[in-house]
Amino acid sequence: MAIDRRTKMSPEETDAFLGSHETGVMSLARTDEPYAIPISYGYNASNGQFYTRLVSTPESEKRRFLDSNPDARVVVYEADGDTYRSVIATGTLVRIDPQELTVEDVQQYGDAKRPLFEIWPKQKGELDIELYRLDPETLSGRLIEISREK
To answer: Coil, helix or strand for 118?
Structure first.
């Protein structure tokens, strides 16, 4: 297997890619500890922001990470035959107080897809359901095309 082409995606290609997807992996870091979770998201190409809804319980590992104001990284990727695309965004995750939501925020959270059903071991009243925004400090997309030698 040989890589035929490896290129950086343009800002327009990166925005189009993020806008056409709805899931990725978010990694959080504090000191020397990593934590990664699958997420669904909405993406606003005009300001480059990600919007997501995160659910946790008060005693969960996720809650401990979210409460520590961690650095965040979102990875969105796809494999289509011999073409691979990925986008990596890094930045600070910001919790949005529901009382401070703007009309634009509400529209973006509406674009953040979620599963049609959710299964949680706890009652909904025992869950922390919070809205977050990631304002990327860096955003980069890559495209790789490979040849498979037979």
So the answer is: coil
